Amino acid sequence: MLILLLSLAVPPVDAFNCVTHSTCGCMFQSGGSQGYKINVNDFSSGEQTEIEHGADAWDAGSGEILRGAAWQYNRNADLTVDGSFCDGTENIREKDDTWFTGQGLAADVDAVTTPCFAFCGWVDGDITFRDSEPWSTSLPSDITNSDLSIGTVAMHEFGHFAGLDHEDANMATMNSLYPHGGDIAHTKYRINEDDYVGFLTGYSDASTGNNMMLSRYAFETVGDNLAVEVWTNGTSEETGKTWSGHAGNTITAAAGPSEVMAIINGTSSISPVIEWRLSSDAVCFSGTEYVLGTRTPTISSNVPYAVSPNGGYAIPGGTPNGTYHLCAKIDSTGATSETSESDNIIVSEKLFTVN
Ligand SMILES: [Zn+2]
C-alpha cells in the first residue's frame, strides 16, 4: 500500500503536476465525483460552511471557471468520531499540535491531506486542519489580519483529492506556501485559472465557449513560508517598482506596478483588449476613472500570459493628486462573448499615489 503525505510546506515545484508514483504514474482519480464527511465536533457551523464552499469551487457549472469539467464534490453524512486512516471515510477533521508533530510535520504546516492508495487506486483521503490555527471564515479578499481563510485552504486540500500536486511558481490555489485562488466579487471562492489548466491534464472539459480572466500578480516570499501578493499587499513591493507618479508623466512597464496575468479558456487564441485605470474607489470600471493604457496581446488558450500596458503607465494630465486603486480589465471592449464575465476585472488593494 502506498501512502502519500502532502502538506503546505513541501519544497517548491515549478510545474503543475498530478501526484505521481514510480509504479502507478499519475494519480488522478478516474471518477467524476468524490464524497467527504466533516467531523462536526471539530468545526463551527461557519467553518463547515466555508469548507463546503471550498470544495464546491472545484465543481463545474454555468458561469464558473470550471465550465464543464467532469468533477463534483459531495458532502455526505457528517461524523462525530474520526474515522481511521485508509478506512474510506474521507474524513475532514481537526487535530492538535501534538498530532501534527507526531506525523513529522513542521510547526508551519497548517493543514494536510493524507490520501490512501492501493493498487494505484484511491481508497481514502483525510484532510486534517491544525486546531491551534486561528482560522478565518472570510473570503480571502475580506481578511484583514494574518489569519488563514479556512475555505481557501480547504479548496487547496480538495485539489489534492483530485490528484493535483503543488504549483509554487505562480499564484495558484495549489501554491503550497500561499494557496491563492482569490474569490469572485467577494461572493464565492474560485480556483485560479492556472489550477484549471492543470486540472485539464487529468479531466475533460466538455463545455464550449470562451472565458478570460486576469489574475496572479507577482508575489514574493516573506520569512520562510509566507508569500505576499505584491500587487495587493501594501507592506511589500518588488524591488524598484514604483506605485506613484505625476500627472502627465509615464512610468515605464519595467518600473511600474507588477504585471497582471491573463489566461483564457476556449478555442484557439483570442486577442482581447486589456485596459488599465486609476479608480478613486475599489469599484473598477465604474464612475470617474483615469485610463493609464491598454495592450492587445494574442493569447493562446490555457497558456498564462503576463502583460503590462503598451508604452507603460501614462498618467493623464489633469489627474487630481490623491491615492487610487489600480484596476485592469480583460476584454474591456466587450468584443468576446464569455461563459463568465465576473473574473475579467482585478483591483489592487495597494494604493497608487498621484502627486
Ligand atoms: Zn498541498
In total, the number of strands is: 25
CA-based shape: globular
The CATH topology name of the largest domain reads Collagenase (Catalytic Domain)
Please report the distance between the alpha carbons of the first and last residues.
64 Å
Number of helical segments with 4 or more residues: 4
What's the story with the biggest beta sheet? 7 strands, mixed
The CATH class label of the largest domain is: Alpha Beta
CATH architecture designation of the largest domain = 3-Layer(aba) Sandwich
CATH superfamily of the largest domain: Collagenase (Catalytic Domain)
SSE order, one letter for each helix or strand: EEEEEHEEHEEHEEHEEEEEEEEEEEEEE
The amount of helix comes to 10-25%
> How much β-strand is present in the residues?
25-35%
| Uncertain stretches of 5 or more adjacent residues | 1-15, 220-237
**Bound compounds:** zinc ion
Structural class: mainly beta
Properties at a glance:
globular; 31% strand; 4 helices; disordered N terminus; 2 domains; 7-stranded mixed sheet; mainly beta; 25 strands; 355 residues; binds zinc ion; Collagenase (Catalytic Domain); 5-stranded mixed sheet; Immunoglobulin-like
Commentary on this structure:
With 355 residues, the chain is mainly β. The protein contains 4 helices and 25 strands. Strands 1, 2, 5, 6, 7, 8 and 9 form a 7-stranded mixed β-sheet that branches. It has a 5-stranded mixed β-sheet with strand order 15-25-24-19-20, with no helix packed on it. A 3-stranded antiparallel β-sheet has the order 12-17-22, with no helix packed on it. Strand 3 and strand 4 form a beta hairpin. Helix 1 crosses helix 3 (150-161). The chain binds zinc ion. Zinc ion (ZN) is lined by residues 6, 8, 156, 160, 166, 176.
